[in-house]
Design brief:
The chain is built from 2 helices and 2 strands. It has about 55 residues and is mainly alpha-helical. It has one domain. Helix 1 packs across helix 2.
Length: about 55
């Protein structure tokens, strides 16, 4: 795989991740870092309003 092909693939993945972040951000308002960590495959504990704590 050439450098140009790799760059194109990475750009497509980045665009999809940003679109996913935007859609999730519509529900998890103000939780941008949590959304990014979730997309990146990290383990997060989402804590918001009482009763909304959820592990992801």
């Amino acid at each position: 795989m050439s450098n140009e092909e790799l760059k194109e693939k990475l750009n497509r993945v980045r665009e999809k991740a940003l679109a996913l972040e935007e859609e999730i951000g519509k529900v998890w308002v103000g939780q941008r870092q949590v959304v990014r960590e979730t997309i990146a495959g990290g383990n997060v504990l989402y804590e918001g309003l009482p009763g909304s704590a959820r592990p992801f």
